[in-house]
Design brief:
By secondary structure, this protein is of the alpha+beta class. The protein has 25 helices and 28 strands. Helix content is 35%, strand content 22%. The longest helix is centred in the last third of the chain and has 21 residues, at 507-527. It is globular.
Amino acid sequence: MTSKRWNEPAVTEALAAEHGIKADEYKRLLEIVGRTPTFTELGIYSVMWSEHCSYKSSKIWLRKFPTEAPWVICGPGENAGVIDIGDGQAAIFKMESHNHPSYIEPFQGAATGVGGILRDVFTMGARPVANLNALRFGEPSHPKTRSLVAGVVAGIGHYGNCVGVPTVGGETNFHKAYNGNCLVNAMTVGVAQQDKIFYSKAAGVGNPVVYVGSKTGRDGIHGATMSSAEFTEDSEAKRPTVQVGDPFTEKLLIEACLELMATDAIQSIQDMGAAGLTSSSVEMAGKGGLGIELHLEKVPQRELNMTPYEIMLSESQERMLIILKPGSEDLARSIMEKWELDFAVIGHLTDTGRFVLKMDGETYCDLALAPLFDAAPLYTRPTEPTPAPAALEPELRALKQSAGAVLTRLIACPDLASKRWIWEQYDSQVGADTRFLSGQADAAVVRVHGTQKGLALSSDVTPRYCHADPYRGGMQAVAESYRNISAVGATPLAITDNMNFGNPEKPRIMGQFAACVEGMAEACRVLDYPVVSGNVSLYNETNGEGILPTPTVGGVGLLADGMKAVGLALRNAGDVLLLLGETAGHLGQSLYLREILGREDGPTPPVDLALERRTAELVRALIADGLVSASHDVSDGGLAVALAEMAMAGGIGADLPVLADADAGTLFGEDQARYVLAVPADKAAEVGARAAAAGVPVSKLGTVGGDALTGLPGGAIPVAALRGANEGWLPSYMAGTAH
C-alpha cells in the first residue's frame, strides 16, 4: 500500500496503546486486518473501537432496557428515539454528554455539546423545539467550580440562544465527587411528520456520498478516545481535542437540511458527531451492509496540508454526511449554497464491503468495513455489588431546632437554591410555544406548534441514592421522571438516558452500572416507560477518584391540551392542600441528613412502582378533569421543601396545622410516590373519594392563604424570607460573596 509523505509513524503496539488500544485488542485488530495497519487505519480503529463509539463495556447491560411500546416508532440504534404523538406527528429526542470537553474547556465544551445533540435530532427530519441540560459540578468551595459553572452556563446559553431553540429545563447540583470531573448532559426534543423521518442506513450502490456544512479543521481530533479515558494532572493539555462551535452556522444547517428533506433527494443522512467523518461514514455503510469509498482531497478543509488521518478523525462541528439519490446532486448543491454552506460530493457507496480512503490518487485505508462497525470487543466486565447501607438511628427523627430554621437552611443549600441565575441566561421563550419553564412546574411544557398539544419534558436522577444503592437509585431516577411528567398532567411516554459513571474496569464501578441498569429497566417495565435513545459516558474519573453514579433520565410526555398543564405555584387563597402517598419519614441519604446533620449515610428510600403508577394515573386524571390548581411531587428535602417551593412560586403562604407536632422524618424525609396538590375547597371531598377508590393514600395538610407558612413546629416562617434565602445563594456565590 502506497503512502504519501505525511511523516506518518510506523504502527506498533506501543503506538496503538497511545491510541487507547490495549495489547489484546491490537492482536485482534492484526488478525482482522491481516497485516500491520497504516497510521490512518490505526486512527480509524482507535475511534470506532473506543468506549465512546462502541459501548464495549456497557452494551451487554443496555440490552436489558425495555425499548418497545405501541407508541414507539424507533428505539435505540438511530441518532435519536422517535415516538408517536398523534395526528401523524412524532417527537424525536435524545440526551448526550459532553463531560470531558466541558471540564477542559467549559464554554466550548458545553456549547458544542448543545450543537451535537441538536444535530442528532434534526438529522432525523425534526425541527428542534426544546433543549434541556443536566449539570453536576464539584463542591462550591473547590477552586475550579465557579469558573466551570460560569463557562458551562455561558456556553449552553450562547449556543442555544443563537441557534434559536428554547432551553426550557434541567437541573444543576453540586457534590465533591464531581470536583475533578463535571457532568454536562444535553437533551434536545424535536417534532417531525411521521412520513418525513430520515434514518442513517445507507442504500444504493453507486449513490453519491455528500459532505455539507462547515469546513473540516484540526479541532476535536481524538475527542472520542479522550472521552474514553480517565483524567490525570495533564488533562489541561487535552484542549486541542475540544471542538469549537458556531451556532450561527448550525442554524443555517438546520434550515438547509430541513429544506432538502422536503424534497425527495435524500436516501440517508447522519451528523458527524464523535469521530467525525469516520463514524458517520462507517455507521451509514455498516447499517446498510455496503462498502464506501471516499476521496479526501474533496473534503472542504479550512486548514492547509491536512493529512488523511486528521481529516478522518477531526470532530469539527456543524457538519453532515448525506447519501443522495442519483441525479439529486445539483438540487442539493443549490440548496446548500443558498444557505452559504459547503457542499461536496466526496465519494460513493460500493458493493465491496470495504472502507476505502484515497487522497490525491494514493490509498490510505482499505479495510473490511463490517469489523469496524460491529466487531469491536465486547466485555463482560467483573462486577462487585455495593454493600447495603446500615440503618439509621431512630433518634435522628427528633427535630433539634425550629422547622423554619431547618427549612431556610435547606432551601438555601446549593442543590435546592434557586437556579434563576442560570436559566435567566437561556432564551426560554423563543418560538413562543413555551408554556412552563424552569422553576414554574415539575416538568417544562412546550406546545406542539400549530396544535393544542403539549410536550412535557424533564431531567432527573438522584446520584446520592445511586451511590448508596444503585439498583434502588436507578429505579428512583425513572420513577421521579415519571412523577414529574405526571405532575403537570402529561402522560409519560418514553425516556432517553445518559449513563455517567467512573472507570468500568473497576468491579465496584461496573457493579454500580449494572445495578443501575437493572433498577431502571424494572421501573421502565412496570411504568410502561420505555428507553428509546441514550448515551453512555464512562471513565469519569480523575486520578482514580470517580464521580457518583449518575444515570440521568430525560423524560417526555404528552398532553392533549397543553394549556391544561398545571404548575407548582400556589395561586388561590382558600384552596385545600392534599398530600397523596404515604409518609414513613425516611431520612436515609436525604438532604436533611447531609445539610443539617453533616452525614451521607443510611438506606435510600424504598420505591413502590405499583404505587407510583397508581398515584400518577390519579394525578393525571384529576388534572384532566380540572380539579387541581397546583401540583408538585415530593422529592429532595421532603414535604416541607415541596410546600415551601409551592409557596415561593406563588408568593402566597399556607396554614399547616396537621404538621404542628411533626418530626424531622415527616417534614424532611424523602419518601417516594408522593404529590402535594392544591384543590378548590369545594372539590376536596371529590378528590379524596377518587384517591380512596384508586387505592392511593390521601391526607389534608391545610389551606392556602396568608404570607407565611404557619402551623410548623417552632412557629411561622414568612414566604418572603424563604424566597430571599432560596434566591440569594447562587448569585452571591457567582459574585464571590457567598459565605
